[in-house]
Design brief:
Elements: H1 3-18, E1 44-52, H2 59-63, E2 70-73, H3 80-89, E3 93-100, H4 121-134, E4 138-145, H5 153-166, E5 169-172, H6 181-188, E6 192-194, E7 197-198, H7 205-218, E8 224-230, H8 235-252, E9 254-255
Parallel strand pairs: 1-2, 1-8, 1-9, 2-3, 3-4, 4-5, 5-6, 7-8
Helix pairs in contact: 4-5, 5-6, 7-8
The structure holds zinc ion (ZN).
Length: about 270
């Protein structure tokens, strides 16, 4: 067996045994063998799409992309369960898109069950657990908005405690330069990854294409890249731009689920 295939098989078995990867991978099994750079490094892209949960524009177009994505599903919304089940059924990864208080912005943008800095420790713990319970198949958590709440060490300590207890990883969407997510994740041993690039904070095809060109250039310098896009107002634009960029990006990198990019789990962490 060629060396790369053997490494891919061993790591696949490792991921299943450790709970890193969902064993049911119907659509994308052929994408398991990693792409190597000239220097022997693996290059991987994880595409995370936020704001699932209310049948927003682009939901079907994103879920039918020919790559595994990580679907960040908001809790307590009309299609929360349906979107999470459908994403899982198609072999995508599901995470909880936890609404968290921003510095600016309306409370109504946050949605139900939001984590705000005025809540008691007990209430935050209750809300994070309820959000995780509401999103089936969740493997991790990331923040929706949250420029204020992620910068609050007390709030993030509780969020990370719950992530550890539930065996979930955390993706810091990086909406605040003062985010306490990394420090608190490290304290309790929760695997943490960071967003590298937002694809569609401006709702135009030219902007999303520009961000995808940035991604194509960055992949030469940075072997693992995490990008975040959205369903909703930019959903159709983002889905179409990704679909057209995938063939070229695939020549240089593999598309992976977020859990495949995690650092080694800390020994105290118990995986589901
Ligand atoms: Zn969001």
């Amino acid at each position: 067996m060629p060396a790369m295939r053997r490494i891919a098989m061993i790591s696949a078995v490792f991921m299943i045994l450790t709970g890193y990867a969902c064993p049911a991978r119907p659509a994308f099994a052929s994408r398991w063998s990693p792409t190597e750079t000239g220097g022997g490094e693996l290059r991987r892209i994880a595409v995370v799409i936020d704001d699932f949960g209310s049948a927003m524009k682009g939901t079907e177009e994103i879920l039918s992309l020919p790559i595994p994505i990580t679907a960040a599903v908001m809790p307590f919304l009309p299609t929360t369960r349906r979107d999470a089940e459908e994403a899982h059924r198609r072999g995508h990864e599901v995470i909880v898109h936890l609404p968290m208080e921003p510095i600016r912005g309306k409370r109504s943008w946050l949605g139900p069950g939001a984590i705000t800095t005025d809540l008691s420790d007990e209430e935050i713990r209750k809300r994070v657990n309820a959000a995780i319970d509401d999103v089936p198949h969740a493997r991790g958590v990331n923040n929706h908005m949250g420029s204020k709440a992620t910068a609050d060490p007390r709030v993030m300590r509780i969020v990370m405690d719950v992530c550890r207890e539930r065996g979930l990883y955390f993706l810091d969407s990086r909406t605040s330069p003062r985010s306490q997510a990394a420090a608190e994740a490290e304290r309790v041993g929760v695997p943490l990854v960071d967003n590298d690039l937002f694809l569609d904070e401006v709702y135009s095809a030219s902007h999303v294409h520009k961000q995808l060109r940035k991604l194509a250039l960055s992949i030469d310098r940075q072997p693992d890249i995490i990008v975040i896009g959205h369903v909703g107002p930019p959903g159709l634009i983002t889905a179409a731009a990704l679909r057209s960029a995938i063939p070229n990006l695939r020549e240089d990198a593999d598309f992976v689920r977020l859990s495949e990019m995690l650092p080694e789990p800390a020994p105290l962490l118990k995986w589901k």
